Amino acid sequence: MNLAKKMKASRGMGQVITVTIGLIILCIVFGILNPNFFSGRNAGNLFRQIAPILLIGVGQSYVLITGNIDLSIGSLVGMSCMVSATLMTKGMNPWMAVLLTLFSCLLVGLANGLLVAKLKLPPFIATLGTMTIARGIAQIVNNNYNTDSIGEKAEGFRNFFYYGKSFGLYNTIWIALVLWVIFNFILSKTRTGRHIYAIGSNLEAAKLSGVDIVGTTVKAFLVSSICACTVGLIICATSGMGTMDAGNGYELYAVAASVIGGVSTLGGQGNILGTIIGAAIWGVLQNGLQFVGAPVAIRNIVIGIIVIVSVLLDVIVRSGKFHNKAIKV
Amino acid sequence: MNKDLIFTKGVKMQEKLVEIRNINKSFPGVKALVDVSLDLYKGEVLALLGENGAGKSTLMKILSGVYQKDSGSIKVYGKEVEEMTAKRARELGIAIIHQELNMCSHLSVAENIFLGREKLKSGLLSDNEMKRETEKILKRFQMDIDPDTIVGDLSVSKQQMVEIAKALSTQAKILIMDEPTSALTSKEINELFSVIKQLKAEGCGIVYISHRLEELSHIVDRVTILRDGQYIKSMDFASTTLPEIITYMVGRELKEKFPRVESKRGKTILEVNHLNAGKMVKDVSFQLREGEIVGVAGLMGAGRTEMTRAVFGVDSKDSGEIILDGEQVLIHKPKDAIKAGIVLAPEDRKRDGLCTKLSVKENISLPNLDLLCNLLGVVSRSRENGMVSKTIKSLKIKLPEDTVKAESLSGGNQQKVVVGKWLARNSRVVIFDEPTRGIDVAAKVEIYNIMNELKQQGVGVLFISSEMPEVMGISDRILVMCDGRITGELDTKDATGDIILSYATKFDKKLEDGNRESQEWRQV
User: Residue B106: which of A201, A204, A328 has the nearest Cβ?
Assistant: First the structure.
């Protein structure tokens, strides 16, 4: 099998290569603007900045590949952060709190999946609803206040999710990598993964082939909620307290990481290797612009433009392709 | 009742695979099936025939578990099946090849064939095994397709072959083929027929739905005919004739397959000079006169559709001029063409012709809103209703009310909507691209009549078709295209199949070069 074909068969690897080149160029540009960009310390920070975006990007990618979208990711991050912090400040064992938090996030993911696949709500509306609800929960668990410090007892928790290091890398980075490996494996090697692509590509065909539409959609939303939950825990561990507006706007960062990495918003196409690159581009832009002294507002504008341009490129490439095919028919 | 169901003459009294009795099914506003019965025996091909909307596809969707019956009974291998679901049907060995392509276009051939029943090795996908199996299936039925190809990159006819291979790979005993040949080339049709014969010999029962009655003689043993959702008759194919079958299908005798009217040809309306567009339209020039139907023949991929798209302004033109009523018109987008009076009823109804989620009424009024609204852009409901009901009446579109969604109509009625939305305007040139694909005989005749009527009104009609008999039967003049060029022009009375074919294969060497599949003329 020749290389070109192999690339084609691997669901949009072409875009992964294009954006990787883009990423390298970005790094070089920021390196020239400020040589400290490449310092070991900044690299460590950069990776730690990228990790949460990678995680929510993986979650969003799963949902996008099924042809849906998850807008509740950002609120779920906030909910996870507040629920875990509140439980810990109330004296609960941190690991017990983590389990309960995960459980509550999975419930929201389950609700998303059922609303979309079983009750057939448009995903945009369904997750817009759960997004508002999850943010409300984040606000109500501690009576509309951010929590106090999660305290000494939670040092182990903070070490695990934030400042500890293993094999020379921050734990945060390891967590993201391990989850990525697991979810990449599921997506590319298991039946569930195959079905996720199938329902995003052609729901009707998948249904007629006996694919469990509801089950598969729910699984994709569960992955998304697991990722969001983990990010919430990381933020809680980072600041040592619960903040109600944690994760604000993350759902869109997640879409950005996915889409820049070649995941199609129309479903059926993309892979989460691309999401790594997408998250890295997001992180390098944030970090690099910060380094050269650009204010937050400018960073937001730049990232917005990058998202639009990358989707636009994708649409142009794709429409060219399908146009030719239409003619062949 | 069903007396003639039990008779068997040509076929040996065989094991009954399927026995359907008194099935009823309603959809909102439509009674799709009323007391319909059907038998399928081991080792036979049963043609299920009827006009569009007769209920053939609905019945087969019930048998394969896509729809649920309202009442009636289904016995498979002599056992009553209470609730037929897609899963249950698969377990029983019932496979269906749907009329619409149902493939995941982003997945590979092998992935599609094994979708929903993937081969696993210790819980993980075993892609190599699935690939090997796919190769075996494709080889067994002599299909030249690489299992790694992404389905969306295949031509429609290859996709159809994959769909067929998918159904065959399930080792089904009961196979339902709903219009399997509508997108195939004649070579592929022959391949399919030899596959069907092979399956028959292996004891499969096959229900075969097709509008191409001419095909039936190659494979069919018995026919069952439905009309308007009701069971009409079952017959031995050997003991009947096509005209008899058509009479039962239509409920009356169909006088002429290709009705022809004469009208006076007037002055030239449309003149296309040296049109070039992309790779598929090269130096195309032709003229169209008032009151004539010009047929455009050619093989699939000859550039006919591309030519119409360029004329209508969908695709951009590289060079060339379009002269309408003696004046050059600049057409950059469809809106320009519509304004000038050139309209197009495109080839792919569902993709290009209709907003399937909108109602029939909205579809018909969509291109005519400029005529229906006042200065402020407010659409006049009464004018809209008037226009729509006039169109529906004059085209005899069958529907409960004009607010039903276009997707719920049968193929023939959908095609009439596609045509109908242009008739409300007084267009000068109407282009029909494959208007009769996948619709039944009677609906075809109605489409021909619409073209004839336009012709008599002095409209110029450009009629693209891949079916030689209808091109010769309906057109006044025939243009033949090959490899993006017009390679022949002839008067219908001088036209024979051989002449057209020789023009259509003028650059045959090109066709054989590796990139393009060699497409054959459909003579079926």
Answer: A201
